[in-house]
Amino acid sequence: MPRTKRAKLVSLTKVSKKTREHKNVLLAEVQQNAEKWKYCWLFEVGATRNAHLKTVRKLWKDSARIFFGRGAVMAKALGTTVEEEHRMGLHKLAQQIKGQVGLFFTDSEPQEVIEWFDDFKQADFARTGNRATRTVILPAGPVMRVHSDPPEPFPHNEDPQLRKLGLTTSMKRGVPTLENPHRVCDKGKALTGEQAQLLKLLGEKMVEFKVGLLARWDAASGEVVQVEGGPREIERDGDEVEDEDEEMSE
User: Fold this and answer.
1) Cα separations (Å) of 130 from 17, 39, 134, 183, 205?
2) pTM
3) Is residue 7 pLDDT above 70, yes or no?
4) Which is the most buried residue in 128, 134, 153, 193, by most CB within 10 A?
5) Alpha-carbon Rg of the chain, whole angstroms?
């Protein structure tokens, strides 16, 4: 009799465990960078996506160091009190580390950093719980993929998936077709899982990855300056930090 999947044994030696030693290494890295760079920025991210965060790292790899995730470790590394702070003034930054935020160390002048992050925005697909930024209604006729250029109809083998996501389609000349218009979502309303998945299949991007700069620490003076106009009103969703330790140490 074949063994069921339920009876499958998993060796505990294959399970990764984050140790105190590893956290201490990350803590030391944050402190080393606090000693190396002129400025340390505290930032938050709207519509967190690993791919876009890695793009930021790549573009700044020669002139900055980024840590993201594990806020408790970052705060401890900087020191949350005057007595514990690693360098003068850092406790004022550490006390603001809450939620999914990161540290950006660099020697680049503040105006350059502000202007760069103001310009860096990446459109992406919404997730469950994000609010629709516009109303999407599919017209009667072939169901089209809007992300292709020019738009093209869905192939016949994707019709079952479209039906599963709520579309009432019929096959006409091998193309999934709507007899009547279908309202996918309404502007301002939170998206369900089915709506988010359907919008992704259609190629409709409704969220924007962007970095909101919150505060800046100056190594020379020890002063912490809040960024004018921050924090930005950016929509957050389920953060895609698959391995926080890896995110911190890259």
Assistant:
1) 32, 33, 12, 17, 11
2) 0.75
3) no
4) 153
5) 23
